[in-house]
């Protein structure tokens, strides 16, 4: 009789402990690109989320705020993926310059409302390339519509590289004291620089209120931003999923940070 009691007592302690230690992997929503009637997310992002221990789910574009709200309730973290230019007139009040690229109005609406809803709900966000620009615009920042025609430097940097996706072509300097610096400090060179890939012709111009710059290219172009009061909202202008999906895990800490922030 006594033995049975102790067996039940031990079971009552051990079973809940075991269940608690088996944390569920966080669900990471990935904003889809929207063209030719299809919602797509490149596999590079999906591989990177899985490598970091997250469960990737594709979030299809919608212009319905109620659906966006339910999507945010269903995810633990959010990655804003790369893509087209953001409509300058609608979202930051500038007439389009001749060198502006293609825009997808419904995707702008979706991404910007999704971003605001996710941040409001306290969900960790990682914006990549267009995703970083969307993060900036969603909170009141502006963009260079086209770096080559708007930013004149004695020594310009090529931001639209002609090289493999996993290959870094230009240098960034990560700013000490930022969250990004904390994430990447072990992989940076002694002078706080790192080589990144670059596939953009737009960039952050005026940083959104409440955000700070966390990395710069040699020509002064913003390569990363983050929210001042929320260390789980980050944006990078480069594409970490390029190398990570190709087996170079140097930038995997960015995805691991997002997944860890969900817990
Ligand atoms: Mn760049």
Verbal overview:
The chain has helices spanning 2-21, 43-51, 65-74, 88-92, 105-120, 130-138, 147-150, 179-184, 241-245, 252-261, and strands spanning 27-31, 33-35, 38-40, 55-59, 77-80, 125-128, 143-144, 170-174, 193-196, 203-204, 211-217, 222-227, 233-236. The protein is an alpha/beta fold and 263 residues long. The chain has a single domain, classed as Class I glutamine amidotransferase (GATase) domain (Rossmann fold, 3-Layer(aba) Sandwich). The strands form 3 sheets. The protein has a 9-stranded mixed sheet, sandwiched between helices. Strands 2-3 form a two-stranded antiparallel sheet. Strand 2 and strand 3 form a beta hairpin. The longest helix has 20 residues, at 2-21. The structure holds manganese (II) ion. Manganese (II) ion binds at residues 159, 170, 198, 200, 217, 223, 237.
Helix tally equals: 10
Can you identify the CATH superfamily? Answer: Class I glutamine amidotransferase (GATase) domain
**Helix and strand pattern:** HEEEHEHEHHEHEHEHEEEEEHH
Radius of gyration: 21 Å
- Profile the largest sheet: 9 strands, mixed
Q: How many angstroms separate the termini?
A: 42 Å
Question: Structural class of the helices, strands and pairings?
Answer: alpha/beta
CATH architecture: 3-Layer(aba) Sandwich
Q: CATH top level?
A: Alpha Beta
Shape: globular
Ligands present: manganese (II) ion
Task: Give the proportion of residues in helices.
Answer: 25-40%
